[in-house]
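lol ok so funny story. i was supposed to be doing the assay writeup but got distracted and ended up predicting the structure for this chain instead. priorities right. anyway since i did it might as well share w the group, maybe its usefull for someone
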Amino acid sequence: MTTTSTPPEQDYDRAEIEQALMGPGITALKGAFSTEWADRMREDIVAAFEEAVSRQGGAVGRGPNRYYVEIHPQQLRGFLDIVSHPWFRAVCETVLGPDYKVLELGFDIPFAGAQNQPWHRDFPSPPETYEGHRLTSLAFNLTAVDTEPDMGPFEIAPGTQWEPGLEFDHQMFPAREEWPRLEAIAERKFPQRGDISARSALTLHRGTANHSEKSRPVLVVGVDAPGAGHDAFHDMAMTRDYYDAIPEDVRAHLLGRVVDRLEPIVQKHTIEGLVMGAP
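and the output, tada:
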């Protein structure tokens, strides 16, 4: 069911967590898991990708040589390690409140030859954020490899989670004329196996060109505050025996169907503006 490696409870600085996500829009914990744990995660990602690309709707393009796949918790041995980790829980509670819900599990893989993505956010900003200055969702990322400069590292424009973006294309893609401004403040991230990060998916970001011969798989865990509404884009499910074996304090935060038999996920959260990539 899981490869338990969750550390004992620790006192993480919640004020520091809040300051990071309300300011730059991203924070991270180095060495949250062992490199061996991360290697097992990569094995599960590779297996899930091979299954997904063999069927219609299993993997969606996020640009040339770049794919996104959603999976069920039972396809990832370390899923419960992630959602029960005290830092993960502290971040969710601090920013989203005590009733947060985990609703998305997937991974992004830029292969050799992946191009720069256009600057984007993952969905339009809600009024609660651009008017009320409140974040209603978070995306957690865990790299399956040690990120090197030529592997197409993730790039983020700090502080842009508060831009309304009402004039963006689909309220997600700023005009190309805005790109120099974003590039001037952009930060590239080089996470290593075992690290975990949390960010607002509204903070403008992009994957950069992968000039290496290696792939760079990254796990994604999406979490919502109550009422954020992103569950319509996802279809996480668990079998009854798996669900019943999850500790109640963790199970209360999982938003997904309980089913007799798992069915492969047909991807719902397509982002059309990423399909072609950007020069």
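The longest helix spans residues 35-52. The domain at 26-218+226-269 is CATH 2.60.120.620 (Jelly Rolls).
back to the writeup now i swear
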